[in-house]
Design a protein that fits this description.
The complex is a heterodimer of chains A (315) and B (249). Chain A is mostly helical. Chain A has one domain (22-243). Chain A is 73% helix and 3% strand. In chain A, strand 2 (152-153) and strand 3 (156-157) form a beta hairpin. The longest helix of chain A is centred in the last third of the chain and has 27 residues, at 208-234. With 249 residues, chain B is an alpha/beta fold. Helix content of chain B is 37%, strand content 24%. Chain B contains nine helices and ten strands. In chain B, the strands form two sheets. A six-stranded mixed sheet of chain B has the order 6-7-8-3-9-10, with helices on both faces. The longest helix of chain B is centred in the middle third of the chain and has 14 residues, at 151-164. The chains are: A mainly alpha (315), B alpha/beta (249). Chains A and B meet through helix 6, helix 7 and helix 8 of A and helix 2 and helix 3 of B. Bound molecules: adenosine-5'-diphosphate (ADP) and magnesium ion. The site of magnesium ion (MG) has 3 residues of chain B, from helix 1.
Chain lengths: 315, 249
């Protein structure tokens, strides 16, 4: 028997999306288009953070190179646009496929290691892609590559900030729903079981490598979509999208919001980027303030901010 | 007699200077309960780890049901009918009892590349998982997180997970470790009920249990089988008495 449960995490998630949906209204009312761009960016990073949570929170894989997929997705869009491919669907599809392929390659190599080595090897791959982008002089090298046209998908005109904003919101919602589905499935159980007790999973006949690799590819693919959205939003791509500090930021979003909670990383992305924005206007030493705040949250909120919002027990 | 279900021959495993397995020969017939006894550090757990595939022997062969599995990875051996329990309880701590059992069921049913359907409400997982719990008397504790189970219940769940795999050979590493007398009696009755239906390699220090359950006993000392035979023969063996039973009794 299945009774639909309206529980606290679910209500909190719907409230969160409700608030995000109101941002364009607020921005319009108070004539602050800046908020539209800020929160579109926030949601794109939230998408990247949710994707990282799949491998970090549920798979126990500390990928320190997720910015690589952001970069691959963004560059796919940028390079196609540069060569005159105007179809957004083609641009984004290529971005998704390219990031899936890169994640498959990086994952299949990195997952042969674990612990500190895994962290270092994922970082190393991301750095290689960073320097590859710097060396692509034809596509702007260090300076990056502007994108002339955001384009359109059917009736949705991406040059309209509001329409782009809502498209990103819908994609974030879909990705979150998909991630929930995956985590609740047999696949999710095998992945989580192997994270908590690999020895036991192996003794039951579950070979962790293949489940981790598939999770890694799903995660890289979603993160690649985030990269495509980022390139579309900013009409620009540059190697800085793949900087290792970017990978670090995505990890901070997940840990701050709450690992293995899926919605938590969205909260983490909002809090980190909005605080960054506010503190940066007050002082250039904003990291000195943000650092201790992060330490306190990690120390006092066991499952991050989301554990505190939604009650510690549920995801 | 038909071909043995499991044949371990000349298995050697060294850890640095110690030979934890020093040329172990052992065979288990279909349906047989074969106890392996020996003092701490004799290499019993190491032997189970090599049969289950967690460790690779340095030399020797392991044949299960006619197939050489010496170099087969552990997950594949589990899927082909070799299930083990651990001496130190080894469960998935964040899962409930039934979630642990359901994971065993889904592993037995094949690969877990199913991404959409919710596992929690899946009857094809929950019903056999519940049946596995019921076999060890845990049906009333299905939704309790593993961390909140009593020690005896955790030990029972260890066995339930192995049984959920419907193995042809159960590798039991001290299933009664740390149990009180009443839990131990329940475990003996449970294993007694399995006798004849599934072959067992039973490592156990509780001599009452061993002499009650075993069809054959092998005595392992310093990685070598020093005696093997029917329980009454092993009991009478002078060398065994000196090496082991003397100090245990
Ligand atoms: N992973 C390991 N690394 C090093 N030495 C080990 C390891 N596992 C077991 N040993 C050693 O091998 C010997 C046999 O251990 P074990 O198989 O656990 O014995 P038993 O289960 O009979 O008590 C012991 O001397 C133990 O210290
Ligand atoms: Mg042992």
């Amino acid at each position: 028997m299945r009774v639909p449960v309206i529980d606290r995490p679910r209500i909190a998630t719907f409230l969160l999306f409700g608030l995000l949906a109101l941002v364009p209204v607020y921005a319009g009312l108070f004539d602050q288009p800046f908020y539209l761009t800020l929160f579109a960016r926030v949601m794109i990073f939230a998408l990247a953070a949710v994707s990282l949570d799949l491998v970090l929170g549920f798979g126990g894989m500390v990928s320190f190179g997720h910015a690589a997929y952001l970069g691959v997705g963004a560059y796919a869009v940028g390079i196609l646009a540069y060569h005159g491919v105007d179809s957004v669907l083609v641009r984004w599809s290529v971005a998704i496929l390219a990031s899936a392929a890169v994640a498959l390659f990086i994952g299949s190599v990195s997952l042969r290691t674990s612990g500190m080595y895994f962290i270092m090897i994922t970082l190393a791959f991301a750095q290689m892609l960073f320097y590859l982008a710097v060396s692509l002089k034809a596509y702007g090298g260090d300076d990056g590559l502007p994108i002339a046209q955001r384009g359109a998908i059917g009736p949705i005109d991406l040059n309209s900030s509001t329409q782009l904003y809502y498209l990103i919101l819908v994609l974030l919602g879909l990705a979150l729903a998909l991630a929930h589905r995956i985590i609740g499935s047999r696949f999710g159980r095998a992945l989580e079981g192997a994270k908590w007790n690999e020895r036991r999973a192996v003794a039951l006949g579950i070979a962790p490598y293949r489940y981790r690799l598939v999770a890694f590819v799903i995660s890289g693919t979603i993160c690649g979509l985030a990269g495509a959205l980022l390139a579309t939003l900013t009409s620009f791509v540059s190697p800085s999208y793949m900087a290792w500090t970017r990978s670090g930021e995505i990890i901070v979003m997940v840990v701050l919001g709450g690992m293995a909670t899926l919605t938590g990383p969205i909260v983490g992305a909002i809090v980190l980027l909005v605080l960054e924005e506010i503190l940066a206007t007050i002082t250039i030493h904003w990291m000195l303030i943000l650092g201790p705040v992060l330490v306190l949250v990690v120390l006092f909120a066991r499952r991050g901010l989301w554990g505190w919002i939604a009650g510690a027990r549920h995801g | 007699m038909a071909e043995a279900l499991l044949t371990v021959s000349g298995v050697i495993k060294r850890f640095g200077g110690i030979a934890a397995s020093d040329g172990v020969d052992l065979s288990i017939a279909r349906g047989e309960c074969h106890a392996v006894i020996g003092p701490n550090g004799a290499g019993k757990t190491t032997l189970i780890a090599q049969v289950s595939g967690e460790l690779r022997p340095d030399a020797g062969r392991i044949v299960f049901d006619g197939a050489d599995v010496t170099h087969e990875p552990a997950p594949r051996r589990a899927r082909s009918g070799l299930a083990r329990s651990f001496q130190v309880t080894c469960l998935i701590p964040s899962f409930t009892a039934i979630e642990n059992a359901a994971l065993a069921i889904q592993a037995r049913q094949g690969h877990s590349f199913r991404f959409w359907r919710e596992a929690r409400g899946d009857r094809s997982l929950n019903e056999p998982a519940m049946a596995a719990l019921a076999r060890v008397g845990l049906e009333g504790r299905a939704n309790v997180p593993v961390g909140a189970l009593a020690h005896g219940e955790q030990r029972a769940l260890e066995i339930a997970l192995a049984l959920a795999l419907e193995p042809r050979l159960l590798l039991l590493d001290e299933p009664m470790a740390g149990m009180g007398p009443s839990d131990a009696a329940r475990m003996i009755a449970l294993l007694d009920g399995l006798k004849g239906r599934v072959a067992m390699l039973l490592v156990e220090h509780d001599m009452d249990a061993v002499f009650r359950l075993a069809d054959r006993i092998s005595v392992l000392v310093y990685g070598k089988v020093i005696a093997s035979g029917r329980p009454e023969d092993v009991r009478a063996d002078a060398e065994v008495k000196r090496a082991y039973l003397g100090e245990a009794a």
